[in-house]
Design a protein that fits this description.
alpha+beta; Double-stranded beta-helix; 3-stranded antiparallel sheet; 23% strand; binds fe (ii) ion
Length: 295
Amino acid sequence: MALSVRELHPGFAAEVLDLALAQPLPDATVAELQDAMDRHGVLVFRGQHLDDHSQIAFARRFGPPERYVLSYRPGIKLRLGQPEMVDVSNLDATTGQPQDRNARHRMVNLGNRLWHTDSSFKQVRGALSMLYAHAVPPEGGETEFGDCRTAYDRLPASVKQQIEGLEAEHSLMHSRATLGFTDFSPEERAALPPAVHKLVSVNPRTGRKSVYVASHASHVLGMPIAEGRLLIADLIEAATRPDLVYRHAWRVGDLVVWDNRRTLHRGMPFDESYPRDLRRVTTSDVAFPWVTSPT
Ligand SMILES: [Fe+2]
């Protein structure tokens, strides 16, 4: 079955039409979706009917889902019961209502307003993120995506030459510290040591290159801290120029899938007295297809 795809932004982001993801998909459809991911970087599926289990099952077709790490704090209560599910909501785990302004979960998630790519701070970085909307505020709270592939293509040859082979260190603690939040337990810090990744990422399936940076990137190896931070800032700016950004306005039932190795994203502000319940599953960066199912 050929996918029905509608481009949402020139050269970047597309909507997949007429595909219900709650049901198991044939291998051929999964392969077509992976091809579409390689082409568009961001895929939108409207009008879905997913629960946590079917969202995780869909993710599992593309790679092993990561497990949520920030659960080492004694007494922490998680709202969602699945270890593969990241709670991107503004809801309190006990009351289910919008959380207090100073809630720790809110402080950690405020970092999502910075341009980033999921799990660049892990040794095995994030591959595809799949974010599903259960509740959305009446306005605001969009997610913006930047195209790191076209950003790379547009770099001057001298900059391409400069960054080829360079590596940056990424840490969740760094991106949160830039917002003044440093309240991580020793166990959390031990569970999330910094990770090093190249500034240029290559899609092994297409050969296309991307810049790979994020708010988590603290410095460039072998370069003075300030110089590296300016380079990181320049590359983030290159990938988030207005003409490279797709802004997704959420509706309940939307699933948005993006490739963290070729895009940046950030959440936009909204009136937090309204519930915004988005739940994310992210696959680890292993070669696709990672499971061969019997045909
Ligand atoms: Fe994110």
